[in-house]
Amino acid sequence: MSQTSPLQRQRLRAGLSKAELARRAGVDETTVTRAETGQRVQAHKASLIAQAISQAVGQEFSVEDLGIVT
C-alpha cells in the first residue's frame, strides 16, 4: 500500500487532477508528480504549487506544509 504525500492529500481534498493543479499553478504535470513523490522541485515552482493548492482548498499552505522538496 502506497502512502500519499501531504501535497497529494490536499490535491485530492480539493478534487483536482494532477493536470488541473499543474494548469492552475502554471507548471507542467511532471513537476506536480515530482513534488508528490518527494523528488526535488525548483523553489519557485514549489511556491506556485503551494499557492494553487492554498487557493483551491481555501487554507494557506507553505511548501514545507505540503512536504515539497526544494
Question: What does this entry look like structurally?
Answer:
Helix content is 56%, strand content 0%. With 70 residues, it is mostly helical. The chain has a single domain (6-57), classed as 434 Repressor (Amino-terminal Domain), CATH 1.10.260.40. Helix 1 packs parallel to helix 4, helix 2 packs across helix 3 and helix 2 (18-25) packs across helix 4. The longest helix is centred in the C-terminal third of the chain and has 15 residues, at 43-57. It is globular, with a radius of gyration of 10 Å. The model has no long low-confidence stretch (mean pLDDT 96).
Structure summarized in a few sentences:
With 70 residues, this protein is mainly α. The protein has helices at 6-13, 18-25, 29-36, 43-57.
Structural class: mainly alpha
CATH class: Mainly Alpha
How big is the Rg?
A: 10 Å
Distance between the termini: 26 Å
Draw up the topology in text:
Layout: H1 6-13, H2 18-25, H3 29-36, H4 43-57
Helix pairs in contact: 1-4, 2-3, 2-4
What are the defining features of this structure?
single chain, 70 residues, mainly alpha, 56% helix, globular
